[in-house]
Amino acid sequence: MAATSTVQSDIRSALHATNIIISNPSLILSRATSSSARWSFSPRPLISSHYRISTPESFRVRAFSTESTEPVVNVPDKPPICTADELHYVSVSNSDWRLALWRYHPSPQAPPRNHPLLLLSGVGTNAVGYDLSPGSSFARYMSGQGFETWILEVRGAGLSIQGSNPKDVHQSAHEVSEEMEAVAKSVTNGTLSVDQQPSNVPSPPLDSRVSFDEEDSHLAGIVSVWDESKLVTKLTEIFMRLSERLSGFLSESELKIMFAELVDQISKLLVDSQLSERMNEIRGKLLSLLEARQNSAIAGQFRDLSQGLVNVIEEGQKSVSPQLFDLQERLSSIIEDFQKQLDLIVKYDWDFDNYLEEDIPAAMEYIRAQTKPKDGKLLAIGHSMGGILLYAMLSRCGWDGRDSGLAAIVTLASSLDYTPSNSRLKLLLPLADPAQALNVPVVPLGAMLSAAYPLSTRPPYVLSWLNDLISARDMMHPELLEKLVLNNFCTIPAKLILQLTTAFQKSGLCDRSGKFFYKDHLHKSNVPVLAIAGDQDLICPPEAVEETVRLIPEHLASYKVFGEPGGPHYAHYDLVGGRKAVEQVYPCIIEFLSRCDLT
């Protein structure tokens, strides 16, 4: 019980640290400009190559790639973080995202294969986990067995970026790579300093009461009027954005939550309780406007109400002595922080269904066009959320009566239903509250783990339990574990976590509408499945994996748990990068894929 209490205390401390990181939107936004907080260090690529633009007319997907298809634009070598043979970029319909595809050529000494192989990573992770080093590379092992291997980095992960042309894509990819390398070096060397923090983090507001004497009253009036105009404009802009539901980013219920949060923060500035009635009157009128349909006069009404809101604050400021002339500064700070929160909601606006319905189909279509398998099918392996995506794809296609385009799949530590297990992912359940998800629009997983890593590997080892979530004792070389922790994780949208937490509900994971449950239609699939679990996986325990396997037709399902009572043991990432995986797990996968590759 004492050990459990200690772990729970450490978890609460870690979550508190998370709130500190998330409570400063400026810090997250500064990383978001490079698509996410992805910090990593990697050796130089094994094979250098050049980017080219490919726009095949036979399908809708456009790609910037290293292939020599027309039209072609030559640009410099791929970023150092990418250790694949080639780096391709594929665009997504109705989006400015360019998804990174790491390509590994099959070994000429290996037997020829009929299908290319797609690898999908877990939530908030990138391609590095599949290619930790030349001697510990899941992707290299698969290509060495003759499979043309591709790793997809979904939107927001790794080198996937937002851009409209090859030059922008190339520049952004290199910037992300350099940032990952620099920060990882700093964390490893223990030299991360305040100077390395983003430069646009605002300085703390001055905590002072300022009063002007009669000689300075004219100056005070000028300052107040100038600030007032600026504050009214800022408030009007925010209310206009909210009235537009952030161009479809917020539902009506979410809009009300965000509006209430803003007004509550502003109300706390009022010292004079007699002004609360006027504040509530303005609040009611603003909410009515927000709920109404847009019209040509709404901007003027918002401006008038914003002016009234600022006037109430000013009257509250004058009702105390000495006057608190920093009230407008504090109001401005509230408005700016709220604006940044809205920006985060817009920037990190994707969930599990975006991956399933947009990212993966775009990648599969592009890989098929590049490799041209005779039956048009791919083999696929998914780790953690990557496997969940594959299950969801089989379920969707079974329900629709469509061909999935998959010849066979392998899932590593994946499940559609975690209720039978004691998964540590239950720590995410507090974010299942939609209000909390809006208040914390992103979880900077990469930044959090980078900050926590020294505490888990150095005395007094207060966060050493974090290592057990990733790898069992003595299963990963310390340098590879360090690289995995510092290189492999990025920022996660709360919307994604909100959807994934439905896997802890009675009916299992569902789509964003809450009406389609992926468990319900998995039995309709005709695709062979190999499901693999680790005996000491605290994130996706064997009980959770087996729960999903039971839903698959018996003649199509294979299930294997790795780990022995006396060791070695397998935790969540050991199935991919553990020291024994190459001897035990990889051959099992190759045997299964080889059987399915014959047809």
Protein model, in words:
InterPro entries: AB_hydrolase_1, AB_hydrolase_fold, UCP031088_abhydr. This is AB hydrolase-1 domain-containing protein. Keywords: Lipid degradation, Lipid metabolism. The protein is α/β, with parallel strands linked by helices. The chain has two domains: about 75-175 and about 355-599, Rossmann fold (3-Layer(aba) Sandwich), CATH 3.40.50; about 250-350, no CATH class. It is about 45% helix and about 10% strand. It has 20 helices and 13 strands. It has helices at about 1-20, 25-30, 140-145, 165-190, 215-245, 245-250, 250-265, 275-290, 300-320, 325-345, 350-370, 385-400, 435-440, 445-455, 465-470, 480-485, 495-500, 540-550, 575, 580-595, and strands spanning about 50-55, 65, 85-90, 95-105, 115-120, 150-155, 160, 380-385, 405-410, 440-445, 490-495, 530-535, 555-560. The strands form two sheets. Strands 1, 2, 3, 4, 5, 6, 7, 8, 9, 12 and 13 form an eleven-stranded mixed β-sheet that branches. Strands 10-11 form a two-stranded antiparallel ribbon. Helix 5 packs parallel to helix 8 (about 275-290), helix 7 runs antiparallel to helix 8 and helix 14 (about 445-455) runs antiparallel to helix 16 (about 480-485).
